[in-house]
Amino acid sequence: MTPADAVAAARAVAGRLHEDVVARERANRPPRAEIQLLRGSGLLAADPDDLETTHLVTRIIAASDASIGHLLGYHYTHLWRARLYDNADLARRLRQDVRAEGLFVASVSNPRDTIVATTTADTFTVSGRGAFATGCAIADRILVGAIRDDQESRIVVVVPGDADGLSHPPDWDNLGQRLTASGSIVLRDVTAGPADVLGTFPPGEDETSPRWQQLSLVSLAFQTVLTQILVGITEGALDEAARYTREQSRPWPASGLARAVDDPHVLAGYGELAASLHAARLLADDATRALVKADRRGLDLTPAERGRTALTVSAAKVVATRLAVEATSRIFELTGGRATTRSSGLDRFWRDARTLTVHDPVTYKARELGTHLLTGNPPPTTAYS
Predict the structure, then answer these.
(1) Maximum separation of any 2 CA atoms in the chain, in Å
(2) Which pLDDT tens digit goes with each residue over 54-106?
(3) Ranges for the Acyl-CoA dehydrogenase C-terminal domain (predicted)?
(4) Tally of CB atoms within 10 A around 98
(5) Which residues contact 23 (CB under 8 A, 6 or more apart)?
């Protein structure tokens, strides 16, 4: 699939998702049919190393259905990061299986989770509970981050989505992103062999290691994808609200106008949001390009280069976060009281944006940017930055 093919497929899938997104979101069922739609379109098999294309595809899908855009963006990121680990053969097989069978890949690796891999004679048994295991309940393959029981290292293993010992409590009923299957996951003695270990992290390895420096890009990749999703939500909200204003909004009596689209306050409101969206889109794409540049450095990536990449990503995330929350709320001022009906579906944009924007507090990213401005110090490397 060429980049042009992927973008064309994304626009077609986005159109299909838009047709019944309000009803599907309200029903809050596991998004199996939506994953099948992605599978049939070929999008699951797009080249995960072509970040500029996959990020654009993610944003296009997110504008119609933020949940499915979220699942797809994470799927691409998991496949992209797989090649950064030790087991090149497993990463290659995983990608081949995705291309051949249209597999959907998810992960449980929240740094706050405690999942333990217990060593036996020639296998591991993995047990624990993960929160916010986005997409795992419907995944064909799951990347599991775990701590070895000897506490000497952390590992990432790949297990089938239907492995014995996996269960998914039905506890995802959140305000927004309702179709991301982001509930918890429970692992009870899930078996994995040495060939299933994608990567190992010795405890003594830190930022002085070139491999550690390269792997630290994973957290920035997730932040970049989330930024693109937030931009997509804003795009979808403005498009939907503008359509409502054109077709259904009534002018306020005090305006003395016959049409809402002629009200200068409405026009200026949309214009301000459109200008801010244009800026956020440029920043999001700049963050993607910075990640691509850092990724291409491979094991030659320096801490300074990594720091500059983090600053670019954080700037985009701050702006996209603020705009998504503002725009998805302000559209109701521009559409009018009748737009607050549940049937309009405009509320889903705010609920999705609000849910995603508390994923990790953006104020900490703003602090990193301010610290660098005042002191020159780069951002610390964490699971979120």
Answers:
(1) 82
(2) 999 999 999 999 999 999 999 999 999 999 998 999 999 999 999 999 999 99
(3) 229-360
(4) 23
(5) none
pTM of the model: 0.96
What would the pLDDT profile of 254-301 be if each residue is shown by its tens digit? 888 889 999 999 999 999 999 999 999 999 999 999 999 999 999 999
User: How many other CB atoms sit within 10 Å of the CB of residue 66?
Assistant: 31
The answer to whether residue 131 scores a pLDDT higher than 90 is: no
Instruction: Give the dihedral sign, CA 310/311/312/317.
Output: positive
Residue 175 has which token pair? Answer: 């305000």
Instruction: Give the strand pairing for 154-160 and 197-201.
Output: antiparallel
> Which of 43, 39, 42, 40 lies closest to 55, judged by CA?
43
What kind and span of H or E run contains 166? Answer: strand 166-167
HSE-CB for 33 with a 13 A CA cutoff = 9
* Token pair for 357: 């924007």
**pLDDT tens digits, residue range 35-54?**
999 999 999 999 999 999 99
DSSP string, 136-152: GGG-SEEEEEEEETTSS
Radius of gyration of the chain measured on its C-alpha atoms: 22
Q: Who contacts 311 (Cβ-Cβ below 8 Å, separation ≥6)?
A: 368, 369, 372, 378, 379
Query: The tokens 């920035």 sit on which residue?
Result: 220
What does the block give as tokens for 297? 């450095």
Q: Please say if the pLDDT value at position 203 is more than 70.
A: no
Provide the pLDDT for residue 176.
95
The two three-digit tokens of residue 98, written as one number: 């995705």
